[in-house]
Specification:
- By secondary structure, this protein is of the alpha+beta class.
- 56% of the residues lie in helices and 18% in strands.
- It contains 13 helices and twelve strands.
- Strand 2 and strand 3 form a beta hairpin.
- The longest helix has 43 residues.
- The radius of gyration is 33 Å and the shape is elongated.
Length: 414
């Protein structure tokens, strides 16, 4: 008795049977093909989305960042809300001198999307008024030149640090653009630095391209030239360590309550909530995809079992002849089991090929599809492995039924 030889013979016979009944075999594979293709494609799409979110999260300060933004007051303070000056430049100075647990802090005056003009070209990009600490919080790297300085803040200097998009589009081919001028929303600025292109490669593609469209001017310049007052959109603060986050937020809250004259028209938000939401989203996707894949592959396994049972019924006389000339029950069992496994393995392989095609299509059709991974390797292994196991399990009952046939009854079968 040679188990290895029996298995090789069974697989060979299984392949021959699959080849002899191509249409039936393809139909029985269809459930496995669709299940594996759907599993791998959905995992690739979800991983791309989550990778994009993680890259954005880390680029915006990660878990250590606290953001101060305006909010509507509670009903109890609605009648005195006018007493508060709102979120202003004064708040940034108060936090600077009233908080000793912050590593960096910056006011942000969000100017939105503006028209940038230079060399006869015009492009739209985002413009923000910021302070020198902005690069420490938001993980920006200067490629050449310098970033905004305290002197620029003090003098309200008409200077700008351009992002990769503005530099490459308006000054194409120029290696160094320091000292050149660019017009943004009708105001002329002198370029003092260029931000290095931000890259976060997922599936061979950069998912941080939108960050490369940002350019920066001094916050005081933005307030003077565009706002006409000292109002700001938000304050970003980076804590020195996770352990001091709670104490730092208490200090900031006490300071802001004083500057806002007791009116709580502001809120302090951490990125912990965003991180928890990302984790919940990842878990929900994992469980959902696992359930969908399991159901799809289970349906495929049922299809294989039905086809194999039909095959046993069609080949009763063949089984009888084989047993009459010396085939043992376990030979018949291995043949039918191998045939089911061959069908599921081939279906899994075809499903993997189909999943790559689906991901390629999704990259072009889904907004933000650049972040989709072309080959989510672990999902491919899981899908293929699960499909093989399903084929093995679904082939056991038909193989047992074939092996138990009495050769005399089988030979008499019409």
């Amino acid at each position: 008795m040679n188990p290895v030889g029996d298995i090789v013979t069974g697989v060979s016979n299984g392949l021959a049977e699959v080849w002899a009944n191509k249409v039936r075999s393809l139909l029985s594979m269809s459930g496995i093909i669709l299940g594996v293709a759907a599993l791998v494609a959905m995992v690739g799409i979800v991983q791309g989305m989550l990778s994009n979110m993680r890259a954005s999260f880390e680029a915006e300060g990660g878990i250590l960042k606290v953001t101060v933004t305006p909010r509507e007051v509670d009903e109890a303070q609605a009648h005195i809300v006018g007493m508060s000056p709102g979120l202003t430049w004064r708040d940034t100075r108060a936090i600077l001198f009233g908080t000793d647990l912050a590593e960096y802090q910056t006011a942000v005056v969000d100017m939105g999307w503006k028209g940038f003009v230079a060399n006869g070209k015009r492009r739209r990009a985002k413009l923000e008024g910021v302070e020198p600490d902005f690069v420490g919080i938001h993980d920006r790297e200067i490629e050449y030149g310098r970033f905004i300085s305290d002197t620029d803040i003090k003098n309200k200097s008409p200077v700008i640090v351009v992002g990769h998009y503005v530099a490459s589009e308006l000054f194409r081919g120029e290696r160094n653009i320091i000292g050149k001028q660019v017009r943004a929303n009708g105001q002329v600025y002198t370029i003092i630095g260029k931000i290095k292109e931000m890259e976060s490669m997922v599936g061979g593609r950069n998912v941080m391209r939108w960050k490369n469209r940002e350019s920066y001017i001094p916050a005081t310049t933005a307030m003077a030239r565009y706002r006409g007052d000292d109002s700001i959109q938000r304050i970003d603060v980076l804590a020195k360590d996770v352990a001091v986050m709670a104490d730092m937020m208490d200090q900031m809250d006490n300071v802001l309550i004083r500057t806002h004259r007791g009116i709580r028209d502001f809120e302090l938000r951490t990125q912990e909530e965003r991180l928890q939401e990302m984790r919940k989203l990842e878990n929900s996707f994992t469980y959902s995809l696992g359930g969908i894949a399991a159901i799809s592959l289970l349906v495929g396994g049922i299809g294989i079992m039905n086809v194999m049972l039909a095959s046993v019924s069609e080949r009763i006389r063949e089984i009888g002849v084989r047993k009459a000339i010396g085939a043992r029950s376990h030979d018949v069992f291995i043949q039918f089991l191998a045939e089911a496994v061959v069908i599921s393995v081939l279906g899994g392989l075809v499903g993997l090929v189909a999943s790559v095609g689906l991901l390629s299509v999704a990259q072009g059709l889904i907004p933000g599809g650049d972040a989709i991974q072309t080959v989510p390797v672990m999902a491919m292994f899981a899908g293929f492995g699960f499909s093989s196991v399903i084929g093995l399990v679904s082939g056991i009952y038909p193989a047992i039924r074939a092996a138990r046939l009495d050769p005399i009854d089988a030979l008499r079968y019409e």
